[in-house]
Amino acid sequence: MRIGVLTGGGDCPGLNAVIRAVVRKGVANYGHEFVGFQDGWRGPLEGLSRPLGIAEVRGILPRGGTILGSSRTNPFKIENGVERIQENLAAQGVDALVAIGGEDTLGVATKLHELGVRVVGVPKTIDNDLNATDYTFGFDTAVNIAMEAIDRLHTTAESHHRTLVVEVMGRHAGWIALHAGLAGGANVILLPERRFDVDQVAGYVEKRFQHQYAPIVVVAEGAQPLDGQMVLHNQELDSFGHVRLGGIGQWLAEQLEAKTGKEARTVVLGHIQRGGTPTAFDRVLATRLGLHAIDAANDGDWGKMVAMQGTEIVRVPLVDATAELKTVPLERYTEAEVFFGS
Ligand code: F6P
Questions:
Q1: Which helix (H) or strand (E) holds 252?
Q2: Which ligand 1 atom lies nearest to the CA of residue 238?
């Protein structure tokens, strides 16, 4: 077969490890040929492709980002988008696709599969919010980056007796905030899954100062106060209907400073969480997913996504991955609460 590979949506460390595993096993074990589509769904939509053989994937295992480029292109929002994809696949002699992406990219893959395109999905996202898989690669790297930042912020916050609010990514799921906050010993962790009371947070912060330690507050970009709106950069929606989150950290620091009388500053970790080399965990997970994805394609098991369940890599229907968002269960959050304000 001649198989097209693409990476869509926000990039994350480990994408290149998947591409490498798919191509290496696909060529060596099955004799397939590959073509790399550029910039997510824009590649097959506009016929933008590049050669993808063993030579092209050498040395990419530890590299962050994606050698294929990425974008948030939604072919279902473009006139004749699906027909154009089908025409370009036929013109380039591509029999099937391996689509590596999150909620949006795999949502497109699901619909294309229903329209007859042969596709296998591989889940990725730093947010860890995809259903049907216990973990997505990129998440562990993002958590480690955030944890290291929190470790560093503890010492400077204490020197200056100030509150430091750390805003992390994760969109509408609090996984990065929960794990980075627990691993970094945050004083309070605020998630999108549970609205927070600013006065209660100010109380935790004051208590921490009483113990002669400075508080680190980890807030997920999608977290919201009890009686307030989500803080947004702007109201614009991307082609999948998502708003751009961010700004809650600054808002919260201002509130905490006013309520406690202690200086409060904000650190927005932003895209640092998505950049650079993947952790060993993410390299292994990404590699295993890639190996199993090419097996699924070789078996003609279309419309499936490879997923991690326990320690096994399994195949699940693509539609299961995006049926609902995997958010943090309340009991996971309450586990962490014992450390708040202490
Ligand atoms: O989905 C990954 C993610 O990094 C989210 O955590 C974040 O909200 C979003 O992408 C940011 O996207 P962009 O880089 O397009 O602004």
A1: helix 248-260
A2: 15
Place of tokens 């078996």: 299
In ligand 1, the atom with minimum distance to the C-alpha of 129 is 1
Contacts 24+ apart (CB under 8 A), 60-63: 60/16, 60/17, 60/19, 60/20, 61/16, 61/17, 61/20, 61/283, 61/287, 62/277, 62/278, 62/283, 63/16, 63/277
| Residues 289-324 pLDDT 10s | 999 999 999 999 999 999 999 999 999 999 998 899
Output the residue whose Cα is nearest ligand 1's atom 13.
Answer: 10
- Ligand 1: which of 139, 244, 322 to mutate, most ligand atoms within 8 Å of CB? 244
Q: Which H or E element spans position 232? A: strand 232-237
Using one digit for the tens of pLDDT, what is the confidence trace for 51-81? Answer: 999 999 999 999 999 999 999 999 999 999 9
Bridge partner residues of 121 (DSSP): 99, 305
Cβ of 119 closer than 6 Å to ligand 1, yes or no, is no
- Please work out whether the CB of residue 125 comes within 6 Å of at least one atom of ligand 1: yes
